[in-house]
Amino acid sequence: MGKVEGGMKCVKYLLFIFNFIFWMMGSLVLAVGLWLRLEQDTVALLGSDGAPENFFIGVYILIVAGGLVMLVGFFGCCGAVRESQCLLGSFFACLLIIFGAEVAAGVFGFLNKEKIIQDIQTFYSESAKDANGNNTLIVSSYHRVLNCCGTASTRSAQCTNTAPDTKDCESAIEEFFNSKLFIIGYVGIGIAGVMIIGMIFSMVLCCAIRNSREVI
């Protein structure tokens, strides 16, 4: 088997180091996704029946992409060490797929931010209007987690016993989920940017291995 020589050997070890870092970043993405899905406050607000589920779509994309990044990072390390065209080619193809998923998560977080927040605000407002047993628990959860009360139009009538600086729940919902959606967006697009470097390294090394075999 022909071996990669000279500057390409440097690319080989750079790709190995990159994939180890890539594996660690996959662990981070997976951890962030699980945190966003299982975080106590988020579950309290969106864990009830009938709650909007569109917020969790971007979260699920992050979780799946994070798991795949860890797996692909491992195979990328193996491909770099063994100088395997097959593994490196598979690595490139998987990176391309995950790249699309991460960009989708980032774009989803940014472009659907207003709709997601609006759906959650509507869910809160409808729950507050229909004050049965379950809805009362839902409204109480929003008040407790977000430290808010009522909406901008109903706060003065419904929240007479709250502190003057208490926010209305529509503003509190927007502030809370804005921060979560920005995390999804920035993590998704940030990891996608790193993947471009990995795809370049893998293609350079793969071409170098192929050329060295042709010479031999």
Automatic annotation (TrEMBL):
Pfam families: Tetraspanin. Keywords: Disulfide bond, Membrane, Transmembrane, Transmembrane helix. Its main location: membrane. GO terms for cellular component: plasma membrane. The chain crosses the membrane at residues 12-35, 55-75, 87-111, 183-209. It is found in: Membrane. SUPFAM superfamilies: Tetraspanin. It comes from the Eukaryota. InterPro entries: Tetraspanin/Peripherin, Tetraspanin_animals, Tetraspanin_CS, Tetraspanin_EC2_sf. It is a multi-pass membrane protein. Disulfide bonds join 149-169. Belongs to the tetraspanin (TM4SF) family. PANTHER family: TETRASPANIN, TETRASPANIN-2. This is Tetraspanin.
